[in-house]
Amino acid sequence: xxxxxxxxNKFAVIVLSFLGMAFRCPGxxxxxxxxxxxxxxxxxxxxxxxxxxxxIKYSPDSRYFAVVTERGRLDLNSPEDTIWLFRTEDVQxxxxxxxxxxxxxxLPLARFANERDGPLIxxxxxxxxxxxxxxxxxxTSSCCRFHQxxxxxxxxxxxxxxxxxxxxxxxFDIRSDGRYVYEVLAPELRxxxxxxxxxxxxLTGKSLWTTVFPNVQHRLTPFNSAGLWxxxxxxxxxxxxxxxxxxxxxxxxxxxxxxxGSVVAILKAEHAxxxxxxxxxxxxxxxxLRLPLDTSAYHLIDxxxxxxxxxxxxxxxxxxxxxxxxxxxxxxxxGQSLMLPSTFLPLDAVDPSxxxxxxxHPYIAVLNLRSKGLVKVLxxxxxxxxxxxxxKDIRFExxxxxxxxxxxxxxxxxxxQPPAAIFHQQANGSWQxxxxxxxxxxxxxxxxxxxxxxxxxxxxxxxxxxxGGTWRVVWDPNxxxxxxxxxxxxxIHWIDVTGHQWEAxxxxxxxxxxxxxxxxxxxxxxxxxxxxxxxxxYTSAFAARxxxxxxxxxxxxxxxxxxxxxxxxxxxxxxxxxxxxxxLSEEGVVDPSRVGLIGFSRTVYHVLAAIASGEGPFAxxxxxxxxxxxxxxxxxxxxxxxEREADAINGGKPFDRRGLHNWLARSPEFNMxxxxxxxxxxxxxxxxxxxxxxxxxxxxxLRKPVDLIMLQAGTHVMTNPTQxxxxxAANVDWFRxxxxxxxxxxxxxxxxxxxxxxxxxxxxxxxxxxxxSALHDRRVCRDSN
Length: 785
Prior knowledge:
Strand content: 25-35%
Largest sheet: 8 strands, mixed
Low-confidence stretches: 1-23, 772-785
Oligomer: single chain
CATH superfamily of the domain at 486-741: Alpha/Beta hydrolase fold, catalytic domain
Mean pLDDT: 89
Number of helices: 17
């Protein structure tokens, strides 16, 4: 019987550990949620990315819709990605029939579980004739790892390979199985060449990380096949080589014309008027990043000879980090108009107010290829606010109608607005928004299908019978959760001392008893009320429900964006941490002396700053694979662009007296002597260990409790099931140990707890010393008065 079981039920509860059984709260008849359950969840959104084109992907003729999922397969040590196919007619019939026998069973049209890290299936899209779904998937050869283009036929259920081995396919567009265009990148080598054995290798301007750790995404170069390829009437050829096809730093795109004669792509402008283009502004909240000018713009490429032409004398909307989620140009059916979903407009206007507007943000715009006229459709919003646009798809409907579908499923920022905006072209060529708020294709259907998910609701596909007005669950991809007690959770709001309004998810412990105070773990980096709170905002190290099952309250919160990349960034986040502890303590939910923090990626810096402040109610902390803005990271990141943020946050470059003085005051690594919080570093692979070595080394020198665990290498947002399980289990154990004084009796963890008990001895000695010093300080203060 576990200690958790004894707390939740004072009567004896038999636990069959060898069968994987766990205690149940009285009367629940269900077992608690574990890290294994989290890894095995089937998700519609995964790998830290929004779903391109939305979760529900209707075929152009609306006869089908497809859904792509990913789950962790511990038995295979691989993610499993699947394209599921539904017949719209079957779903319609099910919504009209109350019988469970009519529930449609989705067809697994394509499935991959062949690699250690995901995502494995990407860029899924329908052919224009609705006969098949094209997608890229990860494959390996004897030398390389690469993405290959596939086509899954919805009638025969067969899968065809469309591109050769070792061509790493990026973006693509496809009209049929014999007419498509695709980008080719140099494939990733499975084993890196031994550069240190060469007579001499120039390293100036190269990253220290990839120099010291060459196995990190080392690509096969030179690679003559890189560039842009086309297949027209079944004939394959390279249209542009890598030197002629230079894409943006951000998302790229390709779009093939209806007649197969032209391609639109976002490429670097060869002769960009940089002085003029620098006038375009960054999104609200991104000004302080001082990002360099991105001279990428929409180009028209002639299939016959590969000639390129700049379509608009302005950068693509990706410049300065504007991004609405959809950047691929869309052709009208007659091939005479192009919808550019994210572009700035040229600064050749006469009216000063018009010029100022064009400098301020990009637009969705339509370009007439005959007249060369560029017409505004919709001004895009972006920035660190929740009013930004998240566009999932745009298309022409009968050439004179434009449909903009917004992404209501995305876990990223999304606007508080209707699901679609419809525009009609007027006689004078302008585009006027109508009162319609739903995609005309979907209006014609008798059902409405969507993803249902929330902090308490695991992801499902549901459908509404429009005539009857009733919703039904079409597909539950996680029926195993019926056996699991998930525990109570809610959305909370509060205001901190800076005046910032916070929203977060609160997951209360399993068997929660009102009036009893529980330990608390604060998880960071974002909160989405439309996402099931199982691990955290990402599948990296966070372990919300697994910790709640062990009697720990969990808050999943975002961050305060008001002063990002300034000296106020960390203090703003610390104010958020402290204020939520104060709120929950005053409400009698948590014990303020038993609070933990988890940081990942950007919020590693926030957590380190919090514990290095020497203040705040933090009894334990854990960080995974993120930035520290420390001195060692700064030096090892030369030529990476990190200095733009580190200089702004820490007050200049640390190479003169004033700059170094500011760093000594602001950088967490120079303030490790103030840390009183035990710290766990969970680092995926050698590169991540090296990246965050500084706080570990500082705490070891200072004889403070710190533990460093290297996980297997993998993706930044963890996708490998074994890696995810190890990270979640380690954090559950860490916070149980420090916040509850509990240990897992698993014999395989004996060495772990031996290390941690030694750290607790160090912590106790430090607290005794700190307590004696505090008493001495109080006596000195009293005597001096």
